[in-house]
Each structure stands twice: as structure tokens, then as C-alpha cells.
Amino acid sequence: MKGEVFSRLESEVRGYCRNFPVVFDRAEGPRLYAESGRAYIDFFAGAGALNYGHNPRPMRDALIAYLERGAVTHSLDMMTVAKREFLSRFEQVILRKRSLEYKVQFPGPTGTNAVEAALKLARKVTGRRDVVSFTNAFHGMTLGALAVTGNAFKRQGAGVPLNHTVVMPYDSANGIDSLALLESLLENSSSGVDLPAAVILETVQAEGGIHVARTSWLRKLAELCQRHGMVLIVDDIQVGCGRTGSFFSFESAGIEPDMICLSKSLSGYGLPLAVTLVRPSLDRWAPGEHNGTFRGHNPAFVTATVALDHWTDDSLQRSVEAHGEHIAAELASLRERVPGFTIEQRGRGMIRGLVFKGDGVAAKVARAAFEHGLIVETAGPRDEVLKIMPPLTIDRATLDEGLGMLRQATLDVCVSDRAIEAAE
Fold first, then answer.
1. What is the mean pLDDT of residues 159-188?
2. How many CA atoms lie within 13 A of 134 on its CB side?
3. pTM, rounded to two decimals
4. Dist. CA 345–CA 353, nearest whole Å
């Protein structure tokens, strides 16, 4: 009965609550607590919105103090103390330390707003319409972002044609040299492909199945964009803010995108906040040409400013890299224990995927893990990948506890399925 109101009143579109069918009440660090009091280790981290865990105390204390003094909450794009402090801190800790120069646009509260702004601006500054995207991409659920998203189920929900895109294989998927193919189309006046305004990509495709682009491929893509005057947009919404180790996921490739989309863990606290970073030469908006009511979410500026304290040195990056290697070793060991059920593991830093053979196996493992007290989700076009995404700040003991639950859930499902196959 405690969940009856959700099924009675909430839309059928709800999804995650079906996979994790308990009513949650509180959360701290790497754990969520149901109203029954049962604790769950969180390897989902709000789909990447909680890189620093639940309710991190320094951010919570700053937020409470801000609200208690009656400070501004909503401000459209007006100037506020909270926004000034965030912008100053972001410039100091993130941009200057990397010798990067970007203008910061606040397009709206979510990742899809950041993508829409980038696509719209790229088309404005180039005067072109088409955008190159890649197989298995996910960029959001509004129409522009959905047009450059690969998933057929989500695209069908649009109800209208999703046009003005050119889809290429991601990296060298299926043995195809996608960049050579793209360049051949661009240089052939009879290819039927108009010169695109932009290329948009994730350096690690999270929802698409934890596909990791090679640094050499990213460099070649950046060069191709520069040669043809195409705007390079990196969607760092899910795998930015340290998920792969460095603050931006593309840093190891040594590239500088023309635009960067950030959201999810930017606020550090799970509060809605998104930005589109734009090369100054491309910032050709007229005042008010692109706007939105919730661009000035000051409580998120407050927590985002505190979150940047994690990036004053490289300690968190080194921890993420070490944890990532530890997770990879555990997944490699697990693969050896369930031959015939897993294909490979993928990922970088603290976003990892275990790929299962057969439809539905990964989902079974996720359900079994939840019974053991672990929250973990699936990814990929057939939900064939178990997506492991703990908070970056998780301690090693809790990480190992969660990995132990994952191991047991995988063994439970695979042993059971093997027994069913034998019986048949």
C-alpha cells in the first residue's frame, strides 16, 4: 500500500522505480535507505548526477546556510552573488588550470537543454543545417537532442520526423573506418551529404553500452572538424565531472572541443544545473535569442562551487583511476567464473560495463543485485550491458562490498540459467 499512490497517479512513463521497487527515504554517501530502513549500495549514482555521493556534507552545509539567510533562489539570467562565485571558481579551478578559454552559457536546468543550445548555436554560426552523430549515441529526449540520439525506441517517441542528421559508425564499429568514410562523403560533391554544421559525440557512450572512443580516433575527428569548418561538440553530461578520471573526459586525447555540454554532476548535489561551454569566437547569440526560465538556479550554483574543491589538485583523479582499475580487475575475474554468459568488459575510470550474451541476462543480474542490496542499471541497445557507476568518492571497503554483491548476483543468475538450459 505504501507504493499505491505512485501506480495510481503517476504516469506509466515512469521507469527506474519499476527496477527498484521500494520507497526511498534518505541517502548518505554511497548508500540509499528505503523507508523500511534497509540500506542499498548505489552503483547507479543518479545516472551520473551524484559523482560525489548522496548529500555530501560540505555541499549540504553550504546549501542550508545559503537558504537560511534568505538568499536568491530564482533569478533567470540576472547577476547574483552565487552565480558570480560559481563562474569565478569554475574559471580558476577548471578552465585556467587547463589553459582553456570558453564562454559559459546557462541554457536551462538539464543536459538536453545544453545539447539543444549547442546544436542551435552551431547551426547559427555556420549557416548549415545537418549534424553528424554516431551509432549508439544518447544526447537527450527533446527533439533536437533526440535527432542525434541512436536508440530507436526513444526516437519513435518523438512522433515527428527527426531530420538534418548524418549518422556514422562510432569509432571503428563493425570494422568500418568511420572517419575515412565521413571524409570521403564530404569531399565527394555527388555523395548527397551536405557539409554539416557540427559533429556531436560522447567520448564514452554511457547509455549506448559503455563504448569507449580511442584517443587516436578523437584526435583525427578533431582534425577533420577543423579542416571542414565543422563545430566539434563533446557531450560530457554523463561522463564528465571526473567520471573517467580527469574533469573532462576528452583531456587524455589532448583535444579542445568547440563546445562542451555539461550537466548531471556539475551541481555536485543532484540539483538541476547545465552549461554549454562555447569558444568565444562562436558566441554569436543576440541577447535573449536563446533563453529559459530556469537558467539561474542559485542553490545549484552554491553546491557546484563547493564541488569544485575536489578539483584543486589531482587526488580525486588518481583515486578514480585506481578504483577504475580495481573494478576492471573484478569484472575480469567474474568473466572467468561465468564462461558462456559474458562477452567482454568495457569502460574507463569509474564507468564500467560487463557485456552479457543473450537478451535479458544483464537485467536479471541487476534484479538479483537489488535483492542483495545493490542498485545497478543496464545499458546498450538491448540492455545487454551491466553498467557499473559508483560515486567517485566511495571508499574501498564499500566498493568491495558492492562488487561482492554484484559477483554473487551474477553467479546466482548464471548458475540458475545454466541449470535451466541443462534441464531443457
1. 92
2. 32
3. 0.96
4. 5
